[in-house]
Design goal:
Oligomer: homotrimer
Number of helices of chain A: 3
Distance between the termini of chain A: 4 Å
CATH architecture of chain A: Sandwich
Largest sheet of chain A: 5 strands, antiparallel
Number of domains of chain A: 1
Helix content of chain A: 25-40%
Strand order of the largest sheet of chain A: 1-8-3-5-6
C-alpha cells in the first residue's frame, strides 16, 4: 500500500467545464498503483468537480443552463457580492456539486464507466488558475 | 493495510431509489478489513448514490417530488434529448447528488448512523443494469 | 500506511453552519500521518458537510437564503413531516450537499486552499448533538 500525491494547475479562461480525465489518468499511471482509489481535490470555493457524460458537449451546455436558472447570478438578495454577480452564485454552485471526486483504480487505470468524464467546473466568468491536489492510494 | 475491490451489478426496473446498504455491508465483510474506508462508485451518468433516511419510504417519495419540481424532465430549453425527456434531467440529478459515496469502516462493519441507508438512485424511467465498483481500504 | 479513526461530537444549537476545520486539523495531527487522505463522515440525514469560503460569514447567510428559497420548509406536498416543517427539507438539503468530505493530507496537515473551510451544516431548527467519524489514512 502506498500514497502518491501530485499538484495540478489548470487555467480556466472563462465560466464552463474543462475535461481533466486524461490529466488524472496520467497521475494514476505515474503512481504505479494497480488497485485502489484516486482522490481529486479542488482547492477553491467557486470552482468544483463534476462527473458527467463525456461525449455530447450539449450535456454540459444544458447543465450550465440549469445552473443559471436555479442559482441566480446577481440575486439582489445576496449580501456577499464583492467580486461581482458571479461571486455568490459561484459559491452555491460549488457547494451543490463537489469539491472532490474519488475514483476507483483498477489495473493502474481509472475504472470509470464508458460515458463518464471528470470535469473541472469553473463557476466564475473571468480567467483563473485553479489548483487540484491528486492523491492516489492503494497497492 | 490492504485494498479489496468488487463489482456489483444492480438491475433497476424503473426510476426510483434502491437500497444497497446490505450489499455494501457484505462487500466490507468479505474484505476482512477491520478499520478503514469503503468507497462505492456508480459507473453511470444518469444514476447516482445517495445517503438518506432508511425507515420511512415517503422520505424518498418526497425527494423524488422535489427532484421533478426542481429539475424538469423534458424542459424545452434542453438541447440534449436523444434518449427522451428523462435524458438530460437524469444527468443533472446525478450531478447534484453523488457518483460515489465513501463510508467509514469500523470493526469490519459500515459505521453508519442509526437512520442512514445507502441508495442507488435510478434517474431514468426505463429498466437498466447498473454497475457499482466497491473498494474497501484499511487495516 | 496506516488508518486512524476518531469520533467527534458536535452540539448544534440551531439551524446554520459550524466551522469544524480546526477540529479536523487536530485529528490529522494526532494521526501522525504525513501524506494521505482525511475522510469526515456525518452520521445523520438532516445535517451535512460543506466546504465553502471561510472568511466572510455573509457567504453562509446567502447559502442559507438560497436553501430556503429552493428547498421549501413545510411544502404542503411533502408526505414526510412527522418532526415538523424542517424535517423533509433537512433530508433534501443533506442529499444535495454531502454526508462526507474527503480532504488531502500533506506534511501532517490538511492541504486546503487559502479560502476553504469545512462546515457542519445543521438543517434542523432545534438543538442536536451530531456525530462525525473522522478517518485518516496514509503514510
Amino acid at each position: 500500500m502506498k500514497t502518491f500525491q501530485t499538484l495540478l494547475k489548470i487555467t480556466t479562461p472563462k465560466r464552463g467545464t474543462y475535461s481533466i480525465t486524461d490529466k488524472i489518468e496520467q497521475c494514476v499511471k505515474e503512481s504505479g498503483i494497480q488497485s485502489g482509489l484516486c482522490h481529486v481535490f479542488c482547492q477553491h470555493t467557486s470552482a468544483s468537480l463534476i462527473i458527467t457524460e463525456n461525449a455530447d458537449p450539449t450535456v454540459r451546455e444544458d447543465i450550465e443552463y440549469w445552473m443559471q436558472k436555479t442559482i441566480l447570478d446577481g440575486d439582489p438578495a445576496y449580501r456577499h457580492n464583492y467580486e461581482g454577480d458571479d461571486d455568490m452564485s459561484g459559491h452555491i454552485r460549488s457547494m451543490i456539486t463537489q469539491s472532490s471526486q474519488t475514483l476507483p483504480v483498477s489495473n493502474n487505470r481509472l475504472n470509470l464507466g464508458t460515458w463518464q468524464g471528470i470535469f473541472l467546473y469553473e463557476h466564475r466568468t473571468g480567467r483563473f488558475e485553479r489548483r487540484l491536489v491528486v492523491t492516489t492510494q492503494g497497492a
